[in-house]
Fold this sequence. Notes:
This protein is mostly helical.
Amino acid sequence: MTEAMIIERLQRQKDRVRDHSAYYLNRRIAREMDITVEHCLRHGREAILERLAQLDREWDIDRLLMANFAIAGGVTYAAGLQRFSQSPPWRRRRTGLLYLLGAQMCFLLLHAAAGWCPPAAVWRRLGARTKSEIELERSLLMEGLEPRLPTERRPEREPPPPKSSQVVS
């Protein structure tokens, strides 16, 4: 399988994250996928099975973003509440970190609506892949696992036995 074929197969699928990613990032991910698949196919069944196990453990970009928002949002909320509660009640309350939490929630809403947000661009540059990219690599590896069937050749037919009227004694 060549890089061009992988890109063509990925373009047939509708993927909002890929649509909003830079062309060179999509190309780099396709190239890495091509290299990995070719390497596994060259090294045989064990390499393919090992790579399939790695793909089962790989997180797609949506899962990474949800974990990113949960961790960053939890830390920001806890720090904001702590700062808010420690400021004296007769003074103006410090709410700066709570605004950061609001910005994170806006990014999450933007990703849900449009398929893009600033953290998604960062994760793509770090090499995070979409679910469709992971599934394409899995299907290419599964094709490599299937034994190649030889072209079917019809067995030569034996001539039918002669009819009783044709038997000459």
